[in-house]
Amino acid sequence: MPSSEHDRGGAALLEIRDLTVRYGGVVANDGVNLAIDRGEVVGLIGPNGAGKTSLVDAVTGFTAADGEVVLDGRRLDRLPPHRRRRAGLARTWQAGELFADLTVADNVAVAVQRRGWAGLVADVLGRSARTAPDPSLEMLGLLDDADRRPDELSLGRQRLVGVARALAGGSSVVLLDEPAAGLDTDESEAFGDVVRTMATSGRGVLLIDHDMNLVLNVCDRVYVLDFGRVIACGTPTEIRADAAVVAAYLGEEPVA
Amino acid sequence: MSVLELKGVTAGYGHAAAVRDLDLSVKAGEVVALLGPNGAGKTTVLRTAVGLLQPTSGEVRVFGRRLGRRVEKNARAGVVLVPDTRAIFHQLTVRENLSLARRRGDLDIDAVLDRLPRLAPLVNRRVGLLSGGEQQMLALAKALLARPRVLLVDELSLGLAPLAVQELLPIVRALADEAWTGVLLVEQHVDLALATADRAVVLHHGRTALSGTAAELRADREAVRKAYFGDHEEDELVLAEDGAPLHA
Amino acid sequence: MDQLVLFVTLGFAVGAVYAVIASSLVAVHAATGVLNFAQGSIALWGVWVAAELGATGTLILPIGSVQIADGPAPTTVAVAIGVASSALVALLTHLLVMRPLRSAPALSQVVASVGVMLLIVSLVPLRFDTTGAVAAPILPSGTIEVLGAQVAVADLIVLGLALTVAVLLAAYFRFTRWGTATRASAEDETALRLTGWSPDRLAALVWFTTGAATGLVAVVGSPSIGLDPISYTFYVLPGLAAALIARLRSVLVAAAAGLAIGVFQSLLMMMSTYDFWPVWAQAGFGETVPFLIVMVALFVFGRSIPERGGVQTLRMPPVRPPRTRPVYALVVVAATVAAILLTEGSWRFGVVTSIIMMLIALSLVVLTGYLGQISLAAMAFAGTGGFVLSRVTTEYGVPFPLSLVLPALAATVLGVIVGIPALRIRGAHLAVVTLAGALAIQTFVFGNPAFTPYEGNLIEDPTLFGLDLGVRSGTVLTTTSFALMVLVVVGTLTWATARLMRGRTGRSFLAIRSNERAAASVGIDVAGTKLLGFAFSAFLAGIGGCLIGYSRGQLSVESFTVFVGLTLLCTVYVAGITSLAGAVVAGLLAPLGVLATFLEGTLGVGHLYSLIAAIALVVTAVLNPVGITGSVRQASEHLIHRRTTRAQL
Ligand SMILES: Nc1ncnc2c1ncn2[C@@H]1O[C@H](COP(=O)(O)OP(=O)(O)OP(=O)(O)O)[C@@H](O)[C@H]1O
Ligand SMILES: Nc1ncnc2c1ncn2[C@@H]1O[C@H](COP(=O)(O)OP(=O)(O)O)[C@@H](O)[C@H]1O
Ligand SMILES: [Mg+2]
Ligand SMILES: [Mg+2]
């Protein structure tokens, strides 16, 4: 049920209010408002350097920012990154950032497990930590690669490992930063289905990507960012026709 | 004349061959698109063509001579790779990165920045701080400054906005047309690649599944689709532009 | 006032050497990413070559010598050849040791540089006649008056040389393309090759130049600093402190800081002549304080999560988490019990020492191998354990098992304190900061007269339920009951550690080791987990220190100095810092362990021990960039793979 921003009543699952990110003199995000509902796939597109990754960094706590981040009624903007993740806000990284020393299965398992002192005691006295592979591996078709190390995989599959890692261990909102980069056309189509599946369980998804086939087919709503500001927001059809978006981002040629 | 020629090349990692018995050539002034699904071995081909990876059998020739093992010498001779890891230096500024690529007496940095207006305002920023797409533009700018005679580009469109891709691909095309560079272009966006290239080769499981002129492949998208799934029947049917079969 | 000026200028010569070492450290690090612990030793070699030439006209080489003049060689010749030999040592270090290791984990290069350092230190007394040697004056001996004090012209010239070197190096890195390329090579050599540059040549140039510069300043400064067989080697420590003040980035800041440390130490000398100056602030104070300042400064400016494009952590050897194979464990335990029962005297002592050192090695496997935090402080934690043990047994009569736990907890507390900087400081920087921690513990705890009674740190023998577990009984040097007690304690802790490493904790450690930002993004509390690692590791080391204490009956400071810690890290690295097996091998190799007993007692080459150890360290590091056990594993995996592929054919 696509709807544009104005006619939304009630609180969304994730609300980003008036978010501003500055790096010295560079203003990467300038008063951005964005909301993601339960079960909704929201797209975020914009030219290179528009501030998309900065937005994800700020929302997940990796960059200092002004503004509010509210997940399910709870303010997260003062918490350190790992606490935001435990609260259910997960992300992937544009540059992959996988754990090169861990196998694909362990890359995902590390996101699920008990930690700190409790984990330590459980390790020494409890039962073995080896468990069945996380369901997210199967969902992304990574079971065959479970025992390989990330650098043995092609770029596209590395990104998928990042997605599996974000899905594992209870996440109510996932922010995907160019997860389909490096996927071929078929894989990207299949990935679109996976994104929809993620959302069916009530999860909110933010999808950043430059693959317009993917974004425009999969998303319920799309935000467009340019120079750190939201210049458009609406359904894929509205966005495709928006003159400002065509001029700043899509270009004149028909998109593949 | 072929500036780059792979003859019966087999190459891979450890015990697994990622490319098997591959023949491929690029002429001066020609853009060849190297297509194929993920893991088909495209990146491996490029690494072999610049000397980062030694073929276990077969040979790589550039400008008619056998390719040496020293990557830096190959690069100075004009075989330039833009890898999917980008080969840029995150601790240096944009300008410093560009200055390293410049060969003495060649193109100057400002001339290249003129062609990449989005990069121009960022010249003094540390590269590690740039956005992914900005880094990709820098990787291409660096390659342009090196005055390549053979340019190998791995997934140019990776992380680039549609509009940026539409601006950069013509620059690559112009390099072939004006500087007579031979370009081997790896792309996931089949349409964009076919629109830019003269010829195209589709790899599957490290072997050629299909090859032909870009025009032929544009006309027969169904064949391309099949080749992505590894339909080897198409192999013999497609002829090179001069009408001769590409494969013995 | 003129006394102040005098002491300030007295610090110039040493300060100049610190400055040139610091600038060289920054330059070499910029070019290759290596912290070159051998930089001071490179100066040492040049100084002695020049001195010997100036005295006798003999050019001493590592093997053999050449008589180049009858009687003393002219000063210019002596200086020139001295400088050239420093430069050559540096170049050879690069060509023979560092270049083969260029694609190996960064730590292997640090280890190799420590090996080179130890090699030179042990070679100098063997090759040169170090008794009563003096450096002949090289520079004019006049003085000039500055603010009422007489200042030696020679010292001012040395100072000028050091600053000139720094300015030239800084200009090279900042304004030339070669300098830019050199900086790029430390980040990504493959990318630099693809850009058409040869990283090898750039690095060779930097090694050669910094070697020559360090040699020059040290040789010219040696008449006013004095000649002795080791001190220049240790100048690498203030050099490191200064390099770190410059955050390993700016050559100029490093040089200025080096000079400031030299002056500071000289002023401290002046202060200690006053009555009001406290006793505890004398020995070692001047070395420790600069480090503590660095530690605080780095912490304040550091970031708890690395920023975008920030410094990457050092690459480490790969890890295969241990599988629990009870059979192997039983075999190892049975073999150890046999080794204890079948030996006696010094051999049994060697076995017991090896078991204990294995536990301390294990503390490094956890902290450095798994968590990726390079620590030079393991021996300091062990020493803390031992010292507290002495206190609690002799003064408070704490009974046996508790007498292990309390000191280990004390070590744990110190571990956490030293670990706090690790929350914001990473990689090579952290290595130096833990060095600072170790130095501080050494100075303020071990070296503090308030803690160290004149009669030494005695330790009461352990007993359990009336059973005497003491190490000696009558003429028996090492009792069976003591050896078995050590085995039980170490075995239990090793078992627990193994479970930890293959469990969730080990996984979180490895995640942090490979990527802190990503670790935080999957919900790992990076800060908490790092402290957990430091705490656990210090606990293991603390227990190890107590066992060492029990095995000697008395504690000596020399067993726990910073350099012992450095050597231990290197030993564990070459043994295999990412596996249990590596810890076992490191235990066997450790000083006073099984191998040492063999060399000492059976081969009778004890006096060459340090030289043999240093050569072995360098050679092993070069041949096994991922450690001995790592190499064995790679070889066996290769073999298994060949067999399985053949079976499939
Ligand atoms: N720490 C920083 N200091 C200065 N500028 C920065 C910093 N981090 C990011 N920037 C700049 O902020 C801008 C926004 O970057 P961001 O990564 O958010 O873009 P993006 O929309 O994700 O682009 P892309 O599509 O290319 O990934 C870029 O111009 C980038 O160079
Ligand atoms: N460093 C590596 N080690 C082991 N296998 C690798 C490595 N790099 C690539 N491969 C494997 O080689 C095959 C071809 O990969 P690649 O050339 O990257 O394909 P493409 O670029 O077409 O996606 C894949 O099966 C991939 O998993
Ligand atoms: Mg981005
Ligand atoms: Mg590829």
Find the structural class of chain A using helix and strand composition.
Answer: alpha/beta
DSSP E strands of chain A, number: 10
- Overall geometry of chain C: globular
Strand content of chain A: 15-25%
- Based on helices, strands and strand pairing, what is the structural class of chain C? mainly alpha
The CATH topology assignment of the largest domain in chain C is ABC transporter involved in vitamin B12 uptake, BtuC
CATH class of the largest domain in chain C: Mainly Alpha
Q: What's the average pLDDT of chain A? A: 88
Number of domains of chain C: 2
Strand order of the largest sheet of chain A: 6-7-8-3-9-10
The percent of residues in helical segments of chain C reads 55-70%
Q: Unreliable stretches of chain A, pLDDT < 50, 5 or more residues?
A: 1-8
Number of DSSP helical runs of chain A: 10
Pfam families (chain A): ABC_tran (PF00005), BCA_ABC_TP_C (PF12399)
GO molecular function (chain A): ATP binding
Domain ABC transporter (chain A): 14-252
Protein name (chain A): ABC transporter ATP-binding protein
Give the secondary structure arrangement, pairings included.
The complex is a heterotrimer of chains A (256), B (248) and C (649).
Chain A: E1 14-23, E2 26-36, E3 41-45, H1 52-60, E4 66-71, E5 74-75, H2 81-86, E6 89-91, H3 104-109, H4 116-125, H5 135-139, H6 155-167, E7 173-177, H7 185-200, E8 204-208, H8 212-218, E9 221-226, E10 229-234, H9 236-241, H10 243-250
Parallel strand pairs in A: 3-8, 3-9, 6-7, 7-8
Antiparallel strand pairs in A: 1-2, 1-4, 4-5, 9-10
Helix pairs in contact in A: 7-8
Chain B: E1 2-13, E2 16-27, E3 31-35, H1 42-50, E4 57-62, E5 65-66, H2 71-76, E6 79-82, H3 94-101, H4 109-115, H5 132-145, E7 150-154, H6 162-179, E8 182-186, H7 190-196, E9 199-204, E10 207-213, H8 214-219, H9 221-228, H10 234-237
Parallel strand pairs in B: 3-8, 3-9, 6-7, 7-8
Antiparallel strand pairs in B: 1-2, 1-4, 4-5, 9-10
Helix pairs in contact in B: 3-5
Chain C: H1 2-10, H2 12-32, H3 39-56, E1 58-60, E2 65-67, H4 75-98, H5 106-127, E3 143-146, E4 149-152, H6 153-175, H7 177-187, H8 189-194, H9 199-225, H10 231-234, H11 236-245, H12 251-271, H13 285-301, H14 326-342, H15 345-370, H16 378-394, H17 400-419, H18 427-446, E5 457-458, E6 463-464, E7 467-468, H19 480-502, H20 504-514, H21 516-521, H22 526-552, E8 554-555, H23 562-576, H24 580-589, H25 594-603, H26 609-623, H27 628-648
Antiparallel strand pairs in C: 1-2, 3-4, 5-8, 6-7
Helix pairs in contact in C: 1-12, 2-6, 2-7, 2-9, 2-11, 2-12, 3-4, 3-5, 3-9, 4-9, 5-23, 5-26, 6-7, 6-9, 6-12, 7-9, 11-12, 11-13, 13-18, 14-19, 15-19, 15-22, 15-24, 15-25, 16-17, 16-18, 16-22, 17-22, 19-22, 20-22, 23-24
Bound molecules: adenosine-5'-triphosphate, adenosine-5'-diphosphate and magnesium ion (2 copies).
Adenosine-5'-diphosphate (ADP) sits between chains B (13, 18, 36, 38-44) and A (151-154).
